[in-house]
């Protein structure tokens, strides 16, 4: 399969399924944009397995198939996502093993993990989102990669904590609860019959996510201009989303909170302007 066609497929998936991230990705030059789309297309496929309606044993089997695919990237000829990723790995120092951490995290969803404390939740966040930050860092130009990797991981945690707040209602309908039990008890909240006390809980969790953003955004000065604009746009959109949730906690109980298209575009333009030479 032609890598150009494979990249085009991954770009289509990313644009459709990861719209918030695509506003940042499109600020990159073609090769880096292609590589990041390959990463997100595979991440989406793994996530979709965990979120799908198949039986748990079937989900586990499909996740194992994805593990095997990662071990044989050089012989992937008919899978557009793996073809694109194989080409990207030859061009950039992408830590492919981090995908296996993502799979580990999705397996936690499949078995129905619950989290007593934030310390219990943190490894999950690092697997399903911090790993994506580290994979993406392989596509960017960066100095002090060791420090950059730590901040990329922290930024991934911030994104995931925001997702958890945004998706409270949807996750509850699917039988999933990510908010730590100790936090629910602290605020006296019952998610099956929420009342006004959940507003204080959501603001508490939003403050925690903000702290992770503060750490993760230390990544920006370590990146080249376009990579910093890309990450800045992604983070900017998510921080505005988090701010909306913090101001109106009741919104997450009605459905998924999102930003209008114009606002996402505005954030992307501001991010590019912020790093202009």
Structure description:
This protein is mainly alpha-helical and 277 residues long. The chain has 13 helices and no strands.
What labels would you give this structure?
277 residues, globular, 13 helices, mainly alpha
> Based on DSSP secondary structure assignment, what is the total number of beta strands?
0
Query: What structural class do you assign from the helix and strand content?
Result: mainly alpha
Strand content: under 5%
N-to-C span: 39 Å
Characterize the largest beta sheet: strand count, sense, and whether it forms a barrel: none
Helix-strand sequence: HHHHHHHHHHHHH
Fraction of helical residues: over 70%
Poorly predicted regions are none
State the shape: globular
Average pLDDT over all residues = 91
Q: How many helix segments?
A: 13
Q: What is the CA-based Rg, rounded?
A: 18 Å
Secondary structure elements and pairings:
Layout: H1 3-17, H2 19-25, H3 30-51, H4 56-71, H5 80-91, H6 97-110, H7 118-137, H8 145-166, H9 168-173, H10 181-187, H11 197-216, H12 225-247, H13 261-274
């Amino acid at each position: 399969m032609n890598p150009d066609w494979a990249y085009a497929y991954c770009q289509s998936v990313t644009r459709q399924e990861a719209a918030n991230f695509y506003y940042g990705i499109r600020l990159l030059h073609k090769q880096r944009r292609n590589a990041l789309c390959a990463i997100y297309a595979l991440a989406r496929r793994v996530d979709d397995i965990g979120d799908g309606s198949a039986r748990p044993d079937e989900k586990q089997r499909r996740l194992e198939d994805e593990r095997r695919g990662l071990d044989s990237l050089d012989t992937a000829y008919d899978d557009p996502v793996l073809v694109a990723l194989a080409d990207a790995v030859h061009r950039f120092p992408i830590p492919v093993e981090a995908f296996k951490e993502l799979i580990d995290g999705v397996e936690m969803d499949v078995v129905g993990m619950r989290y007593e404390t934030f310390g219990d939740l943190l490894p999950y966040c690092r697997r399903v989102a911090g790993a994506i930050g580290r994979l993406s860092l392989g596509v960017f130009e960066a100095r002090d990669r060791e420090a950059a990797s730590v901040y990329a991981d922290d930024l991934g945690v911030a994104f995931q904590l925001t997702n958890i707040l945004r998706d409270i209602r949807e996750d509850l309908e699917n039988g999933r609860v990510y908010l730590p039990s100790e936090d629910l008890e602290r605020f006296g909240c019952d998610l099956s019959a929420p009342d006004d006390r959940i507003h204080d809980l959501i603001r508490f969790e939003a403050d925690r996510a903000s702290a992770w953003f503060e750490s993760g955004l230390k990544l920006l000065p370590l990146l080249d201009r376009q990579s910093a604009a890309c990450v800045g746009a992604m983070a900017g959109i998510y921080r505005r989303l988090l701010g909306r949730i913090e101001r109106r906690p009741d919104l997450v109980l009605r459905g998924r909170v999102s930003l209008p298209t114009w606002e996402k575009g505005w954030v992307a333009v501001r991010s590019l302007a912020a790093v202009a030479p």
